């Protein structure tokens, strides 16, 4: 039995389906997805473009709502939450890292990292301290006064990770976080996510179509979820890279 089994369930998808109504009929993005994510896991959601990876991340984070089924986040169903409550949940509990870095061009790295802190009741000094602390964590402190166009792609992604971390979230949700990066920067970004998981206990959920990223993450992955056509085609579990087992589906 995995050593992870003693950890509490942080997120649960219970028979989740998401479909969109179009002129030609219903289009299913996800069909009958059930998955438990334990606190402190490192999960890879793998599948080709159009398999439902981003839809799954959007549902987990409350950015979208399922057509059928339920999503439990930290022992609470998010289906009945208002948009205001969902936004608060995302701000306090989830950090987002995207394929495109989404930095604000006319703000420095430090100012970009401070953005999620603006709704909080903090002094400017405290916001700067927290932002600098996260920039230091991703080895970008010395470039805190540079603008995005003065940074490489890998450096911009590290700033984006610092921004995702500035509210000390329980979960990092990363959608194709290394798709725009060369192999060297891919390793650097991945090493940061591994460190956050191992040292800080942050739950990491990565969606990707990159088999190499999966290979590089084998030492920390606890679940590998393979999606195809909106359904889970395969699920493997391990205790952080050891004693892999196939999980029977359906």
The chain-level mean pLDDT equals 89
Q: Largest sheet, described in full?
A: 7 strands, mixed
CATH architecture: 3-Layer(aba) Sandwich
Q: Cα-atom Rg, whole angstroms?
A: 18 Å
> What's the number of structural domains?
1
How many strand segments? 11
CATH class: Alpha Beta
Give the helix level as a range of percent. 25-40%
What order do the helices and strands follow? EEEHEEHEHHHEHEHEEE
Number of helices: 7
Polypeptide structure, described:
The chain is of the alpha/beta class and 250 residues long. It has a single domain, classed as Rossmann fold (3-Layer(aba) Sandwich). The protein has helices at residues 53-60, 83-93, 109-114, 124-137, 153-165, 183-200, 211-216, and strands at residues 9-22, 25-38, 42-46, 68-73, 76-77, 94-97, 171-175, 203-208, 223-228, 231-239, 242-246. The strands form 2 sheets. The protein has a 7-stranded mixed sheet with strand order 6-7-8-3-9-10-11, with helices on both faces. A 4-stranded antiparallel sheet has the order 2-1-4-5, with helices on one face. Strand 10 and strand 11 (242-246) form a beta hairpin. The two termini are 20 Å apart.
């Amino acid at each position: 039995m995995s050593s992870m089994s003693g950890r509490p369930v942080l997120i649960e998808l219970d028979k989740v389906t998401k479909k969109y109504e179009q002129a030609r009929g219903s289009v299913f993005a996800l069909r009958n997805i059930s998955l438990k994510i334990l606190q402190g896991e490192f999960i890879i959601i793998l599948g080709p473009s159009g398999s439902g990876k981003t839809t799954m991340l959007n549902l987990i984070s409350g950015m979208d709502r399922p057509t059928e089924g339920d999503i439990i986040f930290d022992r609470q169903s998010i289906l009945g939450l208002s948009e205001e409550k969902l936004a608060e949940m995302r701000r306090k509990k989830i950090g987002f890292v995207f394929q495109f870095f989404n930095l604000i061009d006319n703000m420095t790295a430090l100012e970009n990292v401070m953005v999620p802190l603006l709704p909080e009741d903090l002094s400017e000094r405290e916001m700067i301290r927290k932002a600098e602390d996260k920039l230091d964590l991703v080895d970008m402190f010395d470039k805190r006064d540079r603008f995005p166009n003065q940074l490489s792609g890998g450096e911009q992604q590290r700033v984006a990770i610092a921004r995702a971390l500035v509210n000390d979230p329980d979960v990092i949700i990363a959608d194709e976080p290394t798709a725009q990066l060369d192999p060297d920067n891919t390793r650097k970004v991945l090493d940061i996510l591994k460190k956050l998981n191992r040292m800080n206990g942050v739950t990491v959920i990565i969606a990707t179509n990159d088999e190499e990223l999966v290979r590089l993450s084998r030492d920390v992955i606890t679940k590998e979820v393979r999606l195809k056509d909106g359904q889970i085609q395969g699920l493997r579990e391990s205790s952080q890279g050891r004693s892999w087992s196939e999980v029977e589906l359906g």
